[in-house]
Design a protein that fits this description.
163 residues, globular
Length: 163
């Protein structure tokens, strides 16, 4: 602790390395979607396996369920939204980037309590952690465009606030 009573990381302005429950739920949903995209396994079986992972109890279980089952249930609709903003068929994307884009698009479409910039940033962080070298840049660009379609008023308000 510093003399101010703050931990050294907080005193230096850095975030705690601890992950939020929502971030953990996104990471677990990403693992499940990856498995579903690659193997076509049953969603219930994937969920059961993920719930056995050590640390699952630290995730936001409701958000995990919404992301995993929502993305699988709405895969065709999410891919249709993404197809307007990607440079190739979604089936030709790497499974990691595809799953990250599905999660980001699902959150933009359904999780209105999550600000659009947060949904995009969280997807970018997933891509940085689990995707290819520059996959996060691609994810950022695609979701920036999708946000204009899915949250036009929020995007416009943010643009006007910057002026």
């Amino acid at each position: 602790m510093t003399s101010s009573g703050k931990s050294p990381a907080k005193a230096a302005g850095r975030r705690s390395p601890q992950k939020s429950a929502r971030r953990r739920s996104r990471e677990l949903a990403l693992q499940g979607l990856y498995q579903w995209l690659v193997s076509g396994s049953d969603a219930g079986e994937i969920e059961a396996n993920l719930r056995e992972i050590e640390g699952f109890d630290k995730a936001d279980s409701a958000h995990f369920d919404a992301l995993l089952h929502g993305c699988i249930r709405e895969a065709a609709d999410l891919d249709a939204i993404l197809s307007r903003h990607v440079d190739r068929k979604t089936t030709e994307l790497s499974p990691v980037e595809h799953a990250v884009l599905m999660i980001g698009t699902y959150e933009l479409k359904h999780c209105i309590d999550v600000p659009y910039k947060v949904a995009i940033n969280e997807a970018v962080e997933l891509a940085k952690s689990f995707g290819g070298t520059d996959g996060h840049k691609y994810v950022n660009g695609v979701l920036d465009k999708a946000a204009v379609d899915l949250r036009p008023a929020e995007v416009e308000a943010a643009r006007n606030a910057r002026r």
